[in-house]
Amino acid sequence: MRIQRLIAIWAAKLCSTACRLAGKQGVTLAGKLARKIDPDILRELSLEVREKIFVVCGTNGKTTTNNLLCSAIESEGKKLVCNHTGSNMLDGVTAAFVLAAKNNGHLDADYASIEIDEASTVRVFPYFKPDYMVLTNLFRDQLDRYGEIDITMNLLKKAMQMAPDMTVIVNGDDALSAYLAMESGNPYVTYGITEQVFKEQDTGEIREGRFCKRCGERLDYDFYHYSQLGMYHCPKCGFARPEVDFDAEHIDMTHGLNFDIARFVRSADHGSDAGQRLPAETAHISVNYKGFYNIYNILAAYSAARTGGMELRQFEQVLQDFNPQNGRMEQFHIGNTDVILNLAKNPAGFNQNISAVMEDTREKDLIIVINDNAQDGTDISWLWDVDFDRFADPSIRSITVSGIRCQDMRLRMKYVDIESELIADVQTAIQKRIADGCGNLYVLVNYTALFSTRNILANMH
């Protein structure tokens, strides 16, 4: 054991503890400190993972999918490393391993399941080569940080080439993600929803994957689930949504989420046109979750765990016991008010947040917090691509806008003829709505508003 490694681990743990005592997250800082003391610490610790390493990437759903996958792995009696907090760049990934290490400098872990920011994959993969990558979806996100989707796709393609033996577990309903997996040369497994769940309606949503990435022709869709996710094919070159290996069927969202996950296998090699698709197993899922998008999160976690060899006999109990954290439909009860906190950081994600809010037919108050710090992306023009007009509903008792860009958010609401109250300070806004609200409060925040707002709610809880 190198003394440099021990010092790095002890210093990172001390840093993390000090940050928590100061009311700050401190995970990224701990990882940065560890790398500064010992630049090779991530590589060395990752080699001590006894079985497999999963990574979870994609624009939306990474944190929930990764945390579900972690819970599923733990239900198998396995020890693992997981960055539950969602700190998903190189320093955050390093911190996950370092903070999981024992004081003797070694890691005691069967698996690692790590959420990684898409643009950070090419910085992380030089340190370890994952066995599996879960790719949830690719949407437009933080244009001033990432640029157009093609830039993100190129980075992910480069990362996949750095780990050619890594199996990609991909959302087949997303033409962008499916194309990337198919063209990568990596082995891949697909999941998706084959049945049409919603009646056709023109929601005005932004469709990112409108054109075939293979030949440039406009894709034809039989139907959409949301954004560009759906049943698609190219009329020119034949590129099409694959027959998926894990399929969500018989979906009923009347009370929570109820559906079956059917697993299919092929009688020939994966991807062979001659291979017959045969049903292999079915798992029934019934959970009191909101949001259609959570079907994808559950499906992704299940597909990854089964592909990785997990039995998942306790999977439904894992879902029942799962407590969403870090502002992903996280619930608080303050006084006489039920509060749900959720992250909404891009058009596709915000539109799905709106759908989840509107599934609740009870009277409700709403607080929207928008910041424009560097981690959020300073370009907030994406707000104009969100269907805020859907909040013109009698069940919405009040809308409060808050955060650094609260004036912009109030202007956006004005353009859809919806009144809103401006309270720039988030804590004041929450206190006011708890004092005079209807007892049912939704708080929707973008990225840098998440941790501070969660702290406010936790301290009031």
**Overall 3D form:** globular
Order the strands across the largest sheet as they lie in space. Answer: 2-3-1-4-5-6-9-10-11
How many helices does DSSP assign? 15
In total, how many beta strands? Answer: 17
Range of strand content: 15-25%
Low-confidence stretches: none
Helix content percent band: 25-40%
What separation lies between the terminal Cα atoms? 44 Å
- Largest sheet at a glance? 9 strands, mixed
Round the mean pLDDT to the nearest integer and report it. 92
**From the structure provided, what is the oligomeric state, counting identical versus distinct chains?**
single chain
Structural class of the helices, strands and pairings?
Answer: alpha/beta
Using the CA coordinates, give the radius of gyration. Answer: 22 Å
Describe, in plain words, how this protein is organized in 3D.
The structure is a single chain. By secondary structure, the protein is an alpha/beta fold. Helix content is 35%, strand content 23%. The chain contains 15 helices and 17 strands. α2 crosses α5 and α8 packs parallel to α9. The longest helix has 19 residues. The protein is globular, with a radius of gyration of 22 Å. The relative contact order is 0.10.
